[in-house]
Every structure is written in C-alpha cells, then in structure tokens.
DNA sequence: AGTTATTGGTTGCATGTGCAACGATAGGGG
DNA sequence: CCCCTATCGTTGCACATGCAACCAATAACT
C-alpha cells in the first residue's frame, strides 16, 4: 500500500500502532474513498448531501420510515437527519405524514418526484458498487459482508450511547 | 441486523438498493461506529481531533513525515491536516523542521511531550482494536485486512482526483 | 535566464455537524 | 388525575470541514 517502505522493525517506541495494520484506520480510509466516489454521483447530479442520499435510499427501499429509524440505522445524529429531511421536504422530494398513534413522530415517504430521482439513482449506485467490488470474487464479497456484519453487531454493543437502533 | 424485517421481495420499484447489502453504506456505518468509539479514548483524554490523532499516530510510527504525505495516506483534505498540524504545534506536541532540499515542505516530528502522549495512547488504541476485532478469528482478521487492502487499492485507482497518495 | 505550470501549505468563506436545550407528546406510577 | 420521566424531533450555537484563492518555492519548457 505504498507510502514508502512500511518496515516493521522497532524504530522508535515500543507498543506501536502500525497504521497499515490498524483496522479502525484502514476501515475509515476505505469508507472515505468509497463515500467520496459515490457522492460524486448523487451530489453532482442531484445536489444531495450524504444524509439526504441516505434518506432517499432508505425510503426507496422501505416506503415508510421515521427520521429516528433512519438516524439510528445509519449511526447518524438525529439533528443531521432532521435537517436533511427538512431540505428534502422543501424540495418536494419527500413528504411526512404524522403518525396518528404517536404524534411525536412522522412517517416519511418519497413523493413521486422523489421516487423519480431514486429510480434514476439506484441503478447508478448499484453499478458503482459493482465496479467497486469487482476486484473481489463472489465468494470474497459474501465473506466480506458477513465479516462486516459481525463486526458491526459487536461494535454496536460496545457503543456506550443508547444509539442501539430501532 | 434488525430494523424490522429485511424482506427481499419486490415491494416498490425495480432496480433497488438494499441497504443491508449495499457495501458503501455498510462500510461507512462500521467505520463510524469504530471511529466514534475510538475517538472517545483520544478526544476525552487528550483533546485530540480525528485529524490530530492521525498526525500523532503517523509520527509515532514514522518519526518524520510531511503534512502532504499524511493527508494523502489518510484521504484527508490538505487544509484539514494543515489546521491539525497548526494546533498540535501550538500545543507543543509536534515540531516542524523545514526541508532544506525543498523549502516548500516541512518535516513534522513529535516533541518529547508529543511522544509522551503517543506512548500513553498507543497501548489503549491497540487494546481497543483487540476488543473490537475479538469477534473474529485470527484467520478472519487477516482475511479482512487483505480484503480491505485490495478494495482500497482498487478504490484509489478509481478516484478521479489526484489524491493517489505519495 | 525568463516565462509558465506545479506543488506544499495556509487561510477566508460558506456550509455541515455535534451538542445541548427546548417544545410537544407519550408512558408510568402514585 | 397529576407529576415525573422518557422520547421524537427542531433549533441556536460553536466548531469542524471542503473549497477556492492565494503565497512561496520548485520544476519544466523555450
């Protein structure tokens, strides 16, 4: 992975963190790379922020969902989602219908225009993913997803905050 | 992974993105989880931001490195690193020595105080990582790192911007 | 050498983000 | 039925971030 030679002998202090092997770091770098690349698609073309994109994709998949659910599932702050929702609503891409049973929360859904965008976007996102994971075999892809799943589940338990999702 | 049932039948539109299987999403969620958890260690205890933490760890491992290298390696914007470096220098945790051969760039290094912090932090970071990956077998851990490596390498090539690292 | 293009790094500005406080609603005891 | 607590969502505020413009130094070209 370059950046000169990554020698592993004891150069300086003792219990060292080797960035090339440090999983949180590697994970974040990879996440940034994919996130940035993917963002080019939905940002440049439809002016969506990351949170907005996530709202749209979620509603594209699930029809109805509350802001809280989306936030918890994606490990995002509720204020972040709140603002994304406000902006999407203003643009007429989503609508909220207050929940009769619990009037604190609102169910979100795509408007026809919102769904139009989603349907233009979804194939591109999938194509991007396809290109992105094409260096791995099918087998490896499945394996990767399963490893990520287990790590995420575990990490959610370790999380101190009550953001343990729905 | 909860959040109700993730049925895969055709509920709405056609080429759908299934969040639970969509790798960029999963990757980012996992990265957030680990990042947040790890940040608790170095933020609460030493007031380091994520970029600052990265600078410290890099210099802990490599002794000397330029701001540009650190930015490229971690896929961060150069202004982000610039500010982190300025802040760390002000706090007396790192020092810069201008490069005689190319006076545009400066080599960064930890001061003794900076190294002290690093040496307090490194074991904790490693312990965190240990806890974090403890759900996976050694074998799986190696595999995961290798998969991430290959994906990162590939993603860097796909990256449009010239941030192809050092 | 002289002009032009690149590159490392900094900074002003506009925007995004987390946090804490808040309003409104809901749930649980007494 | 009332009070106390918890929860969904919004908002003001401080701070972080990306971008573009910029400076200084270097490289490239003629």
What is the N-to-C order of secondary-structure elements of chain A (H for helix, E for strand)?
A: HHEHHEEHH
Q: What is the overall number of helices of chain A?
A: 6
- What oligomeric state best describes the polypeptide chains here? homodimer
Helix/strand/pairing class of chain A, anyone?
mainly alpha
The helix content of chain A is 55-70%
Report the principal-axis shape of chain A. Answer: globular
Distance between the termini of chain A: 38 Å
In what range is the share of β-strand residues of chain A? 5-15%
For the largest interface in this structure, which chains are involved and how many residues does each contribute?
A-B, 80 and 80 residues
* Largest sheet report of chain A: 3 strands, antiparallel
The average pLDDT value of chain A, as a whole number, equals: 89
Number of strands of chain A: 3
Low-confidence stretches of chain A are 4-11, 162-166
Computed CA radius of gyration of chain A, to the nearest angstrom: 20 Å
């Amino acid at each position: 992975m370059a950046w000169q030679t990554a020698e592993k002998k004891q150069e300086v202090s003792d219990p060292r963190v080797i960035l090339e092997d440090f999983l949180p770091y590697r994970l974040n770098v990879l996440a940034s790379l994919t996130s940035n690349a993917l963002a080019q698609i939905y940002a440049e073309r439809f002016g969506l922020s990351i949170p907005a994109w996530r709202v749209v994709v979620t509603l594209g998949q699930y029809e109805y969902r509350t802001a809280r659910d989306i936030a918890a599932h994606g490990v995002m702050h509720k204020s972040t989602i709140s603002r994304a929702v406000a902006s999407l609503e203003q643009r007429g891409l989503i609508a909220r219908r207050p929940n009769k049973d619990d009037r604190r929360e609102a169910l979100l859904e795509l408007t026809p225009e919102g769904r139009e965008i989603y349907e233009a976007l979804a194939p591109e996102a999938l194509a991007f993913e396809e290109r992105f994971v094409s260096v791995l075999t099918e087998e490896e892809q499945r394996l990767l997803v399963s490893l990520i799943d287990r790590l995420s589940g575990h990490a959610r338990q370790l999380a101190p905050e009550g953001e343990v999702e729905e």
